Fold this protein.
Amino acid sequence: MPLPDVDVVMPVYNAETYVCESVQSILRQSFESFRLICVDDGCTDGSSEILDRLAAEDRRIEVLRQENAGLVGALNAGLSKCTAPLIARMDADDIAMPDRFQRQVEFLQADPKVFAVGTAILEMDTDSEPLAIVQNPLEHEQIDAGLMQMRSGLAHPSVMMRRRAVQSLGGYRAEFEWVEDYDLWLRMSEHGRLANLPEVLLCYRQHASSGTWRVGESRVQRAIAALREAYERRGLLVPHGFEQRYLKVRSPGGPGKWARKASRQGHWGIACKHLRKLWQEAPASSLTWRMTLEVAARSTTHLLFGRKTALPEIPRYRDAA
């Protein structure tokens, strides 16, 4: 088997509901010269069996097993197995668009100064229904400026990066788990250029059990620490009131957030679905009433003026399971 041009690192932990579809979206890429490294991070559900079956069917899949080490441990284990010049990230519950790799490889081949390139993403809910498009800045200068104001800049599972660049930086750092990507982009942007493609090339799944929502306060504290280090590395003075600026109380993730996202796009049916879940979970809360009024107002405007946003179609691979 010839050496691949791209190694894909996919950490997997108890993702039996979605991992088959996620893997299939990689296997059906128009760009075929890749190896998919699935890091089984001590799964206790049916994920391991699914990975074994898929690997038996396609020799481009390599399954790496380890005791549970957390996301950073799984990512670095995957990186240690990479030999291809380019590394693509992928999460076990997301769906890649068919031409994602082709577009990213062409972009990196055309501009050797770019160390990592992400894409626009389509956020979707647990039922694989679309919520909203998220578009990060395209050019390095805007991405780097946003990083220095604690904006992520690149959607982590959408990224393709140069192996030498990420390995020269020591990969992901365990002390910044939950913001390991943000820390990596800060360090990477000091040595090379970052970029984003404008096309939606990844469908990114939102669910309330994700680490982003479960560790909200700790996540913000670690992001602040990563940003403080970046100021120091760049020889810049830390702004007055630095920490207080970013210690903002965030409303919880879940149905309320998703109802808002869908209503902003004019997708009333999806918004109502999540509102119903919110009422079931917290019928008497002020958040429930606030979101209901907000969604009703937004959706009414969209219905009256026909401003429903067209969202990309999400590929379906469940028949391959």
